């Protein structure tokens, strides 16, 4: 089984915290990968929050192809950060030759365009890059978005940390929201794109579980949006549904739970908003999930949330201190990060709620 | 020696031969009285008997006339193998035997100059069905724990009605951050995924119809299963139209338009809306041919309900006066929707055929948003009467046609918008839950069934061609007849009880299938849950092949 976790803090946090959070849950995963997405960046990226950053793992050739494409499209590089790697022998890691984080200024012709148009361009650019780098596995484009970087690798999380020099905390590479996952590959091939968290237009989602409605979700989502591609993992479907419900349909986040785990018809019948809930259930029945799942998500405004499947078949716990909130599959992960917190205030979310952390770290529990 | 008449009919020409043992027969006459087809009759035979009366053998011969039961050698009153004589015989002296060497299909046509007509399929090639080559193969394991059929809750409901795509829902976000409905949506009813198929009140005896209606009401009101029953073409008694039970009834309008006058006239007096309207364009059991209600079955009350004289009634294969699917859909749907003020979902039923996918594609793009369901009816089912040649030689099996429709919807990203309902030989093996489940995995929202309902009621027919006399008005079980004496053989309460019990068992079985694949709602489109050991089937249906 996978293990998932997230940290949201008022202060900038170094990824070593995420590694600690995941490593303490070592028994729950099999080292088939570690991945994390960082939102609301600090350190070297802090001054570039409004400009998109590309997260890329690639070969030399892939790097050239990607940079040529970006330049041809009019993007100008304003910052590049290549993590120094420690390629000592014996590490359990299946690394790509290059890891590149580059921040770009928008092409001239779009600088005055609306935010929406820029966002569509960023998506198209990422999809084009991904398609171009797919041949011979020249590279993997994880995200191309302002204030977001993504790191994914196959191997033992401890060794991945060593390889990227992530065990030593510094102030260069930090973020206020970090989501992370350690994998246990159960169903699908071990490919880089299959590692959670998944990212699309400011939305991040990761999950611990199995989506038994994968086939249904996938068949439906394919036609919904050009960005809904890949489907290397059944958990990608949760991201696409989140994106679809919240961004495409423009529905409040509280309806996400009603889409993925609709209430039984009988209960819907007793509600004041029965008409809306029934319409949602019937119209979006192909986006339901029916397997055991815990989902963690991040919205473009950096709101962090978690929710579970309708029968609560996967664990999650939320612990907090005055300046940090931590989500973790197992409580030992939180103990590692927030050893002095008041554990009596830990939240064990139930199957009928969304637990939401806003940017003031206020915790809200929305009943479905 | 008598002159041999080679063209005489003998039992050997007929599909069933009567086995009779005169030494066991007490001549009670029960079998002759019970045979609704008059296929057996008393006859007197001249018998020679050798006997001896004294202490020593002194054989003498005596001739006497003794009564016996004999099979009638008539193409009209041929034995249907229904076995009623056997059932009533106190001494096991009589019963039917299948005659594999019969010439029935030839002699009937030769003698009558007319085509053979039959009620119901005989499915003589039914050794292995496609559905039986499929298994539910995805069983949850530790990583996706299975559900508990007893403990967990399940939603076994299917939609009847047009479902709007999410982007078209009339929603706006209110000031409180909640979604509010700002406009009209088509009506959708969530009902039990197994509908009691469309068998008309002319086709069934009034006691059978009453039994089915009773079962439907009981399932709804006592068992909490929202089962719906389709009226079939032929109208509905006015008393039912005015009653509260109308809400469990899907009214069918078909090409014959039988009974619709009365329904329209009763509208102002209706206290409930019907569960839905089903417009029948075609039917798999007799595709392209139309249903036949023989004059024998057009009893007085049927004449009244349908507004017709006592004559053979044909439901034409298509709606006369409508020239295209678009036109018929537009006309009928608009008029039917308007009649019920857009409160009642309207669905369409077509026969599975080479063109059914095109029809479905057409409807999926329906700009009126009024097609509330696509009922697809394949061969293999059928209780109705039709010419044998149509029943045996026309039509498509349901499985691949249903799958084609579902995949056509998937290709357009419109699955679920027009609910798919399928029928045609489902439950033929007696296990409707398994068939329904597999059909849902292939894309059906629900299924409907007719013939199995007759069999629940006590129909003695089977899929090997036994009985199949539903068209004659002589149904020995009182199910498909309007003869009072025969109809009285049927106990409506028992019919209702059997149907209710079957549904309860099926409900349990559906959950038993849903639990291991980890589904708490119906497995529509879960083709990943199915596997096939037949490569051709797996490829055609796009499911996993295992061996
Ligand atoms: S089997 Fe049926 S049809 Fe044949 S003789 Fe007996 S009762 Fe009549
Ligand atoms: S319904 Fe009646 S006539 Fe038809 S097959 Fe069954 S028993 Fe025979």
From TrEMBL, chain A:
Which residues are in the Glutamine amidotransferase type-2 domain?
Answer: 2-360
Highest taxon of source: Bacteria
InterPro entries reported for this sequence = GATase_2_dom (IPR017932), Ntn_hydrolases_N (IPR029055)
**Range of residues in the leader sequence:** none
Instruction: Tell me the protein's name.
Output: Ferredoxin-dependent glutamate synthase, GltB1 subunit
UniProtKB/TrEMBL annotation, chain B:
Mention one GO biological process in which this protein takes part, according to its record: glutamate biosynthetic process
Q: What is this protein identified as? A: glutamate synthase (NADPH)
**Enzyme Commission number(s):** 1.4.1.13
tRNA processing in keyword set? no
MF-aspect GO terms:
glutamate synthase (NADPH) activity; iron-sulfur cluster binding; metal ion binding
Catalyzed chemical reaction(s): 2 L-glutamate + NADP(+) = L-glutamine + 2-oxoglutarate + NADPH + H(+)
Q: Which InterPro entries match?
A: 4Fe4S_Fe-S-bd, 4Fe4S_Fe_S_CS, Aldolase_TIM, Glu_synthdom
Q: Which PANTHER family match?
A: ARCHAEAL-TYPE GLUTAMATE SYNTHASE [NADPH]
Give every 4Fe-4S ferredoxin-type domain span: 16-45, 70-99
Family statement drawn from the similarity comment of this UniProt entry: Belongs to the glutamate synthase family.
Note whether Transport occurs among the keywords. Answer: no
Native source organism of the sequence: Desulfuromonas soudanensis
Q: Which UniProt keywords apply?
A: Iron, Iron-sulfur, Metal-binding
Pfam families recorded: Fer4_9, Glu_synthase
């Amino acid at each position: 089984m996978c293990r998932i976790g997230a940290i949201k803090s008022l202060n900038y946090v170094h990824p070593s915290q995420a590694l600690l959070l995941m490593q303490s849950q070592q028994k729950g995963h099999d080292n088939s990968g570690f991945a994390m997405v960082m939102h609301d960046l600090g350190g070297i990226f802090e001054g570039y929050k409004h400009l998109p950053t590309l997260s890329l793992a690639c070969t030399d050739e892939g790097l050239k192809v990607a940079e040529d494409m970006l330049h041809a499209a009019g993007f100008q590089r304003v910052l590049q950060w290549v993590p120094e790697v420690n390629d000592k022998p014996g590490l359990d890691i299946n690394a790509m030759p290059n890891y590149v984080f580059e921040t770009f200024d928008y092409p001239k012709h779009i600088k005055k365009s609306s935010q929406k148009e820029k966002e569509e361009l960023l998506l198209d650019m990422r999809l084009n890059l991904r398609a171009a780098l797919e041949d011979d596995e020249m590279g993997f484009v994880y995200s191309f978005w302002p204030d977001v970087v993504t790191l994914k690798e196959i191997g033992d999380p401890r060794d991945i940390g060593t390889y990227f020099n992530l065990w030593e905390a510094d102030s260069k590479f930090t973020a206020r929201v970090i989501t992370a996952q350690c994998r246990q590959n159960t169903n699908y091939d071990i490919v880089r794109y299959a590692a959670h968290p998944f990212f699309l237009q400011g939305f991040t989602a990761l999950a611990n579980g199995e989506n038994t409605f994968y086939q249904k979700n996938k068949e439906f989502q394919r036609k919904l949006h050009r960005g809904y591609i890949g489907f290397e993992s059944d958990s990608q479907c949760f991201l696409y549904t989140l994106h679809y419900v919240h961004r495409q349909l423009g529905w409040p986040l509280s309806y996400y739970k009603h889409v993925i785990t609709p209430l039984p018809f009988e209960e819907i019948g007793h509600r004041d908003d029965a008409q809306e809930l029934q319409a949602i259930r019937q119209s979006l029945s192909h986006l339901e999930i029916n397997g055991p799942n815990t989902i963690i998500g991040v919205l473009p405004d950096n709101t962090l949330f978690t929710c579970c499947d309708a029968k609560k078949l996967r664990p999650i716990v939320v612990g907090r201190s005055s300046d940090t909130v931590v989500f973790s599959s197992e409580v030992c992960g939180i103990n590692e990060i927030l050893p002095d917190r008041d554990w009596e205030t830990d939240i064990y979310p139930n199957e009928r709620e969304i637990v939401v952390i806003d940017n003031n770290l206020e915790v809200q529990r929305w009943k479905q | 020696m008598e002159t041999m008449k080679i063209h005489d009919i003998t039992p050997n020409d007929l599909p069933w031969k009567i086995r009779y043992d005169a030494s066991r027969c007490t001549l009670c006459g029960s079998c002759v009285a019970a045979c609704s087809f008059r296929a057996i009759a008393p006859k007197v035979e001249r018998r020679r008997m050798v006997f001896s009366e004294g202490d020593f053998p002194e054989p003498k011969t005596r001739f006497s006339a003794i009564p016996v039961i004999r099979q009638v050698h008539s193409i009209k009153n041929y034995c249907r193998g229904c076995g009623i004589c056997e059932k009533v015989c106190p001494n096991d002296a009589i019963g039917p035997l299948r005659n594999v060497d019969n010439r029935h299909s030839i002699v009937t046509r030769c003698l009558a100059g007319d085509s053979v007509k039959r009620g119901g399929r005989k499915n003589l090639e039914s050794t292995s069905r496609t559905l039986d080559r499929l298994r539910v193969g995805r069983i949850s394991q530790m990583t996706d724990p299975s559900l508990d059929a007893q403990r967990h809750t399940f939603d076994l409901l299917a939609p009847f009605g047009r479902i709007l795509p999410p982007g078209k829902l009339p929603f706006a976000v209110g000031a409180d951050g909640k979604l509010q409905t700002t406009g009209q949506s088509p009506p959708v009813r969530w009902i039990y995924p197994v509908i009691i198929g469309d068998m008309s009140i002319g086709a069934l005896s009034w006691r059978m119809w009453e039994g089915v209606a009773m079962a439907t009401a009981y399932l709804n009101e006592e068992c909490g299963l929202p089962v719906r029953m389709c009226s079939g073409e032929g109208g509905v008694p006015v008393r039912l139209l005015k009653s509260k039970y109308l809400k469990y009834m899907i009214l069918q309008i078909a090409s014959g338009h039988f009974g619709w006058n009365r329904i329209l006239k009763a509208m102002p007096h209706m206290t409930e809306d019907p569960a839905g309207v089903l417009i029948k364009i075609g039917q798999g059991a007799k595709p392209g041919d139309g249903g036949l209600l023989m004059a024998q079955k057009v009893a007085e009350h049927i004449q009244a309900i349908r507004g017709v004289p006592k004559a053979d009634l044909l439901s034409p294969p298509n709606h006369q006066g409508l020239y295209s699917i678009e036109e018929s859909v537009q006309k009928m749907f608009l008029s039917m929707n308007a009649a019920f003020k857009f409160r009642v979902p309207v669905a369409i039923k077509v026969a599975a055929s080479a063109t059914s996918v095109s029809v479905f594609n057409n409807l999926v793009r329906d700009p009126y948003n009024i097609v509330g369901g696509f009922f697809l009816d394949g061969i293999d089912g059928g209780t109705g009467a039709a010419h044998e040649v149509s029943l045996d030689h026309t039509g498509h099996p349901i499985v691949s046609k249903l799958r084609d429709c579902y995949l056509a919807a998937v290709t357009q990203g419109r699955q679920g918008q027009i609910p798919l309902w399928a029928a045609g030989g489902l439950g033929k093996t007696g296990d409707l839950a398994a068939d329904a489940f597999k059909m849902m995995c292939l894309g059906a929202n629900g299924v409907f069934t007719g013939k199995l309902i007759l069999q629940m009621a006590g129909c003695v027919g089977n899929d090997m061609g036994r009985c199949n006399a539903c068209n004659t008005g002589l149904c020995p079980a009182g199910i498909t007849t309007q003869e009072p004496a025969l109809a009285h053989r049927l106990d409506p309460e028992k019919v209702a009880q059997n149907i209710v019990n079957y549904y309860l068992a099926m409900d349990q079985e559906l959950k038993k299938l849903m639990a291991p694949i980890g589904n708490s709602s119906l497995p529509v489109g879960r083709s990943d849950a199915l596997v096939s050991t037949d490569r051709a089937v797996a490829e055609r249906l796009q499911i996993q092949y295992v061996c």
